[in-house]
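Researcher: Here's my situation. A collaborator sent me these components and asked whether they could plausibly form a single complex. I don't have experimental data yet, so a predicted model of the whole assembly would be a useful starting point for our discussion.
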Amino acid sequence: MTMQSMHDKILELWPELVLFAGTCVVMVMGLSPKLAVRRMCAPVAGAALAVAGVLAALTTPEGRGLLPGLMPFAKVVVSVVGLAMLLLLDGTVDRTEERLIASGQPFNPLRTNRAEFYAFFLFSLTGLMLCASANDLIWLFLALELTSLPTYIMVTISRGGKAGARSQEAGVKYFFLGAMGAATFLFGFALLYGATGTTNLQAMKEFFAHAGEGGGITDLAIAGMLMSLLGVAFKIAAVPMHLYTPDVYEGAAAPVSAFLAFTPKTAGFISMILLCSTMGWTHGAGHSLPDLVRLLLWVMAALTMTVGNVLAILQSNVKRMLAYSSVAHSGYMLVALVAGPGSGRGITDNGLAAILFYLLSYGLMNLGAFAVLACLERRPGPDGEYREIETVDDLRGLCKTQPALGWTMVVCALSLLGFPPLLGFFAKVPLFTSAIAAGEIVLVVILGVNAAIAAYYYLRLVAMPLLEEPDATLPPAARTPFVSRPLAAFISAASVVVLVAFAGTLMREAGEAAKPPKATGHSNAAK
Amino acid sequence: MAILAPSMFLADVELSNYLPIVVIVLMAITFGIINVGVSMLLGPRRKGKVKGVTYESGMNPVGTARKRFNVRFYLIAVVFLVFDVEIIFLYPWASTFAHLTPQSEESLLWLGRIMFFLLTTVVAYLYGWRKGVFKFD
């Protein structure tokens, strides 16, 4: 890649630079002894995200790279969902510490986590945006790790008091398994480099295109691609790399679990799309992925859907249930990845557009479900220690005790299920149509069966708050004192309903994002 | 776009190029063994209480080493690492920068990049300062 194109590349990174600047400010502000300054962490982070989103929306893709339209769309999605996440994250850390300071204890910067928490939140989203603009394997690796490393720490510090031990356990599990995943795809990247002699994705695509005309793609390259995809599967929590999901989601505080279900998953899918498009999917020309790669994705999709849904049925803890459902949703999106971009003309047969649209929808509706959990708490013991709502039984009769939150849970669970008039339905339709257009009938059948299995446990999340009576033996769950958390819940519930009206527009935008670069033969983009 | 020439793959590497390294490693090992061996054979041996004491640059050692150290030592160590790594990155940058055309757009870009990198360490330093890493009380 020439110096000039590197220069252009930096100009396209304004959203990331703004987020990074926000990170630096937040990191220092959160350590101020003044409460008013400390409180500004979240607004500053929000402002950085909003500015980054606007800058990303103003960027015009220049028609270079593997998927030139991907960058603005993905970055706007990240900043929109990120803003909703930010509302939900309020009050996650330092709750006990702030109470002690309010009661007269001196401020000790070593004991607070607020600065780190918001800084890592922004760092992680910066990494996610960088994933979308990746054009190089090394860039992609660094971006993926920048997305994941902060989340390990966010999980660990997300809970205080007695529950802190659980979040620390979750953080350690997440970190070690994450390191294994990273090692796997780094090895894969190394093999890809060994096979092609380049780390540039565009150059790699041309290498493979030439190799396809010659003796075919070498085994070394195939092995590299398989390892890369398997490693990245950790990020999206696909079988067989899903084992950490329930434990980590359960151990982390509910707002952080919601963050985990969106951020690494989006980074993982964007990386998978980029990686796969180096090796196959020369749009319109009818090249598909090499058989082994396709087989891996096929098996992964089928297993991920089925394992996720079947294990979700067995859970009584809502966070574990939503964790397994997050596994299952990755499986749904993998179906569209197997389908690929289709002919590149329409949007209903473009699997990549379907994935991008689904990521946005899933991010919003899943946020709503976790937000309801984050909004409720109980103080069972005399020690005054609050405890999160965790089991399905805790939601019993919620529509009567807390109507707004109860209905939020009902709407979001129905949307996650894919119930017709809601956003989840309109997100799932393109997954089906793209897979049908690609001729993946068996996968479509498995997807349909899985949607039916999912109904079993999502309907429990609907029936418990809606139809059951409140449990009289337990003290009623109280609303959390942080007002922005219910706000996040209502926003996501509202968007699940309202965005349906804009589903067509969003889908078209996603289609634009997944559009191939203008065909210039074996282009001169890579030098 | 740089496609590797076949000769750069592992199988074609001339192993004899590594001979000097092997020789140096062997020399180092032999030197160590000879030193220890010869002083074991020839050196006088006087045992005593003072001789067995841990060497602390001439001071008499006090207390045990197996105690809890203040966490600030580790914080300082981590901050040190930040600057240590920064310097490691400055060396290759400096050696490449000297080859660029002065005042050219390329060299300005390189300068801008390293300034950005240095800025990140300044932020890290600020963070450490606010966190109270440098405060000993």
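Model: Some features of this prediction you could bring to your collaborator: Chain A touches chain B through 23 residues (CB under 8 Å). The longest strand of chain A covers residues 376-378.
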